[in-house]
Amino acid sequence: MSIEDNTRSKARPALQRPRPAGRLLIVANRLPYRVLDDGAKVELQRNVGGLVSAVHPLAERVGAAWIGWDDGQTALWSRARNALRAAPYRVIPLALPERLHANYYSGFCNATLWPLFHSFLGRAEFHQSWYEAYLEANRRFADRVRREARPGDTIWIHDYQLMLVPGLLRQAGVRSRILFFLHIPFPAADLFRHLPWRSELLAGLAGTDVIAVQAPEHSRHMRDALDQFGPGAGGNGRPKIPELRTIPISIDTVRLSRRSRSPEVLRRAEAIRQSGAGRKIVLSVERLDYAKGILERLRAVERLLERRRDLRERIWFLQLSVPTRTGVGTYERYRRDVDEMVGRINGRFSRPEWVPIRYLFRSLPEDELLAYYRVADAALITSLKDGMNLVAKEYVAAHGHGGGVLVLSEFAGAAREMRGALLVNPHHATETADTVARALEMPLEEQRRRMSGMFRHLLRHTVHDWVERCLA
Ligand code: G6P
């Protein structure tokens, strides 16, 4: 059966739910577009990434409004009025002064909350001035939303950058339905309690009607935190606690699967395959973030090359790292460590005609990425903590009912759903190395059985289902 046939017979029809009475206001730190100025004209370019791919089609369908930070392109946005008028829905860029943004985004969001929520307590820094910037930035977001909101609208707020916004909106008298989706993990109360502003954050979240998270443990952790440190904790009169739901995010399975078999992608895949000269390809793709366990993976790669001399020169590790948060010190240091380790391993094992690790540090257009997925005999995902990890799902969509093996960290949210994956603990370099060898030696029939099971799951649990369930 072809993939199309299978897709048609197995994909669940979209749930028919009434559309919200009012408009949908989407609030996220990132906008779905950035402005491009080529000198002659100013245009909007769609941002890539999980959130935008997930929510943009809905925004287009229902004519939403999307409020987000203007990415420091304040002057450019003001010249993009015509392009904005032509956009498929209302896009509202919010300017933040540079210093405020640095303390809010590079500081509190990505050097306090991100490490803490990913269980890297040692990397989390706590500074009052960063918290104050976070509060101020959230106030500006809330103020913009308040000016936009009409009775009957639904306000859908995304992620850890904006956890105070629901409470601020309630304080300002906004009575619309407020939904919140946390894309990253929520830590156990034992970790969360270290945050000096834990009660403020929870009071902010308590303004929400429904909080949705990626996994049941995040929901349990948030319930514990609300009980222990939330508004009214320890007192008698308990305020209303938001409803908590677990709704794992997903991908547009059918679209990605079709696109990955388009002539353009297949042509590009063939070119990559030929440049590999018949070698097996192990692919890793991620933002260059310590939470993705890149150094741990490189240790496993080195271990594999040490333990399995017979595999040397027969495999290629392809690492596609997307630049991210380059203004944050830990990210810059991490990048240097990754560069150094790749250099050391390549220096140690390379032969004149073979380099074990090919390393690209840039973002890639979708077709190019899909071509890499297609040619990869295995995908190696080693997150030390990950809310979901959509790369795992995209790799499966690109293979459909064909071969290929997903080697996946047990600490990625995707591990709960991707039952056909080979799971690893990335802290265990030897186990990870042996699992990669097992993936490369797996009989094709077993590869297909595992892949096909995961693909069928993804046909039943798409991003469209995620959207419907979030807004239900
Ligand atoms: C994660 C977060 C998103 C964030 C994305 C990219 O997926 O959950 O909220 O947008 O990383 O990070 P950046 O800091 O570039 O927005």
Characterise this structure.
With 472 residues, this protein is an alpha/beta fold. It has 19 helices and 15 strands. It is globular. Residues 1-18 have low confidence and may be disordered.
Task: Looking at this protein, list some descriptive labels.
472 residues; 15 strands; binds 6-O-phosphono-alpha-D-glucopyranose; alpha/beta; disordered N terminus; seven-stranded parallel sheet; six-stranded parallel sheet
What's the β-strand tally?
Answer: 15
Helix-residue proportion: 40-55%
**Ligands (ions, cofactors included):** 6-O-phosphono-alpha-D-glucopyranose
If strands are numbered along the chain, what order do they take across the biggest sheet? 5-4-1-6-7-8-9
Mean pLDDT over the full residue set: 93
User: Structural class of the helices, strands and pairings?
Assistant: alpha/beta
| Structure annotation, total helices | 19
pLDDT < 50 runs, ≥5 residues: 1-18
Radius of gyration: 23 Å
Write the layout of secondary structure elements.
Layout: H1 3-10, E1 24-27, E2 33-37, E3 42-46, H2 50-62, E4 65-69, H3 74-78, H4 81-86, E5 90-94, H5 98-117, H6 128-148, E6 154-158, H7 165-171, E7 177-181, H8 189-192, H9 198-205, E8 210-213, H10 216-229, E9 243-246, H11 253-259, H12 263-275, E10 280-287, H13 294-307, E11 315-322, H14 329-349, E12 357-361, H15 366-375, E13 378-381, H16 390-399, E14 405-409, E15 422-424, H17 429-440, H18 444-460, H19 463-471
Parallel strand pairs: 1-4, 1-6, 4-5, 6-7, 7-8, 8-9, 10-11, 10-13, 11-12, 13-14, 14-15
Antiparallel strand pairs: 2-3
Helix pairs in contact: 5-6, 6-7, 11-16, 12-15, 13-14, 13-17, 16-18
